[in-house]
Every structure is written in C-alpha cells, then in structure tokens.
C-alpha cells in the first residue's frame, strides 16, 4: 500500500500549549461532535485547555459558545494552518470512519502528537498507542486528550517513505513492476 504523501513542515514544539487542534471539513464522520463532548470532560480536569477548530465548508450546525473554543467555520489559509499547527499541543482526528485522510497527512507532516480514532488509515499516524481512541467514544477521547495535555510527547520524526519524494519512489517502482510484467506477456 502506498500512503498519502506528506509535506514535511515540522511545527514548533509547544510543550506549554494547552490547545488541541481540529482542522478540515466538519462532515459527520469527522467526529467533531464527539470532540466537543469530550472537551467538556477535559475542562473538568484541565480548565485551561483550549480547542481550536479550523473548518472548511461551514460549521455544519455546530453551536459553540464556550470561550475556550476558537472556531473558524468558512475556510482557512495555509498560513493560518501553519500558525495553528505551531500553537497546538496536539492534533485531534476523532473520525468515526475513514478510508484515507489528507488532514491526517498534514497533521503527520507537522511532527506534532496526533490523537486519533483507532481506525485503519489513522493508526499509523499515531506515535503513541495510548493516544488511539475508540471511534465515537467521547470518554475515551477525553482520556487521550488529558494524557496529551499532561505529558510531554516529543516531536515525531517523519518516515521518509511517507514524504512526497518517498511516495513518488514507491509509485515509480510499482509502475516499473507493472511495465515489466506487461512486456513479458505475449499479445
């Protein structure tokens, strides 16, 4: 399997940050509703925790009135995302289903800790097993968020095979294999 390519842009390490970042679309399968419920439990543990939402495609009916949530619903620029990645303690991918994630690839490329649902396509982005959560389980997500806020997870090294040049090499190799097998077949 050839992974989604990653642009490596290691974000500053933010050990003092108490901000969890969610970015991308807000479709139901993205689990934003689960994250918002989980944050209520997190705030009981760590009232200084913050949630930053950078959403594209509108808020999908989410009503957020807590001043510990910063939400942009109608899109964001690359510079805004870079700033949010630098300011975040961790990135949250609380999906309920997934087949691949461009957001996950961007999160991985930042080197920041990722908390994510224990789903194929996300598992390999998470560097610490205790940051994997049951899909749709707000209590388990709150547990993982509390962990990431209370521990210092180092910047993750990026697997070179997941970078765009690594993906290009894998594709070249796959196409070369197909071309060789095609040449050997009589027509």
Structure description:
With 187 residues, this protein is of the alpha/beta class. It has one domain: Rossmann fold. It contains five helices and six strands. The chain has helices at residues 32-45, 78-87, 102-110, 138-150, 164-184; strands spanning 19-25, 50-56, 69-72, 90-93, 114-117, 132-133. A six-stranded parallel sheet has the order 3-2-1-4-5-6, sandwiched between helices. Helix 1 links the parallel strand 1 (19-25) and strand 2. Helix 1 crosses helix 4 (138-150). The longest helix is centred in the last third of the chain and has 21 residues, at 164-184. The protein is elongated, with a radius of gyration of 18 Å.
Give a quick rundown of the structure.
The protein is an alpha/beta fold and 187 residues long.
Topology:
Blueprint: E1 19-25, H1 32-45, E2 50-56, E3 69-72, H2 78-87, E4 90-93, H3 102-110, E5 114-117, E6 132-133, H4 138-150, H5 164-184
Helix pairs in contact: 1-4
Fourth-level CATH superfamily? Glycogen Phosphorylase B
Radius of gyration: 18 Å
Describe the largest sheet. 6 strands, parallel
Number of domain units: 1
What is the strand tally?
6
- What structural class results from the helix and strand content? alpha/beta
What's the helix count? 5
Task: Kindly state the percentage of residues in helix.
Answer: 25-40%
For the record, the CATH architecture stands as 3-Layer(aba) Sandwich
Unreliably modeled segments: none
Give the percentage of residues in beta strands: 5-15%
Distance between the termini: 29 Å
Strand order in space, largest sheet: 3-2-1-4-5-6
CATH topology: Rossmann fold
> Can you write the helix and strand succession as a string?
EHEEHEHEEHH
The average pLDDT score comes to 83
